[in-house]
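Hello Y.,

Per our agreement to keep a running log of every chain we model this quarter, I'm adding this entry. I've kept the format consistent with earlier entries: sequence first, then predicted structure.
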Amino acid sequence: MAKQVVTRTYTASIRNQQQVSDDLDSLGFAASKLWNIGRWTISRVWDEIDYIPEHDELTAYLKSHERYDDLHSQSSQRVLQELAEAFNGWYGKRRNGDTRANPPGYRKHGDDHPRSTVTFKAAGFKLDTQYDRVRLSKGSNLKEHWSDFILCEYQTRPDVDLSTIESVQQVRAVWTDEEWELHFVCKVEIEVSESPGEKTVGVDLGINNFAALAYEDGHAELYPLNCLKQDDYYFSKRIARCDDADSKQATRLHQTKSARRTHYFHTLSKHIVERCVDEGVGTVVVGDLSGIREDEENGESKNWGKHGNLDLHSWAFDRFTDLLEYKAEMEDIVVEQVSERDTSKSCSCCGRKRDANRVERGLYVCDNCGAVANADVNGAENIRQKVSPSLATDGVDETQNVSSAHQNLNRSEDGDRSNGWLAQPSTFLFDKETGVFAPQEQVTS
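Predicted structure for the entry above:
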């Protein structure tokens, strides 16, 4: 076993949520306001001279702005750095020919500013691991008399002890759509084993099936979201019966719901990594969901319907992917994120792209090659092929068209990949009694 220094992010709940939520709200709103000011500034510069300012240039320009002092200086710098990175990411897509790519938008919900994540670097926080407390610095505009910091009492998972970690580099205050939580970004030394194999697996994250996996050697798995949906329904009913949405009872219900969701993410990411080790997988390919909340046409929030919005915005995409990455890293498995563009529309067997191929929820039928597949598994296989395009490339002429090449690649020595495992994945359900994922009988979508 070799030792390796890696970055880990540990999530912690805030035990004195009611005492600190107003102050954290102020910082979260301030971060959104500063983002919007920076967004407007970059837009004006781009319109004038077709140039995107680097984050240090943007920081120097806005340092004298009143809103810059709403946060600790390092926190303000981080907001503008994230904005500059987002603009450079957009410009990179545009330069590569993606004409539908949109620049990052303003952070607004109607006339309101949402609560943005606030990052505190070394000078912006002071950690007291003896009493599980952390002091988060306010900006000079938000200081009141002697109170120049927010004192948060935190609680990590039982297996995480921050007192044993030499380097806590950042603390992030993150709004989860229900309450604030803390993310501690740390440098830790771990033992890593040799890579379990060279195979790949594609992972498609979705609303009904939280994860669909397509393995290189020809089988697939589904992980339905039923238990989290049951929790959403149960806790929403319980919270609605509370006399006050801010009461202690309602707060405890929100915390319990959040803890159960976090446990689900931890358990699923651990289970997927264990399955990868068993299957000899060395690379996990995950769809990048960073823009799923935005419409491709105008950059505004998508409307997925009443229940779709509820499910989608209760998701923690980044949280799950982070958990998957660090658990995979411990087994020396690489996690790669790729664009999900057109993966739900394209046939993984012949490459034909057509919206109408998805004939109903959960079913994908290709009118070109006749393939029948579970829609989520088809997406997962398309995601996997972006890193590992084929099972057997021998005999494929590079001059073949896409449709012909896909057919040859996917009808490998393992047999026809359509109408079999693509259409009939194994299903794993989360057992609330045991707290683990249990395999079910193979089902037909």
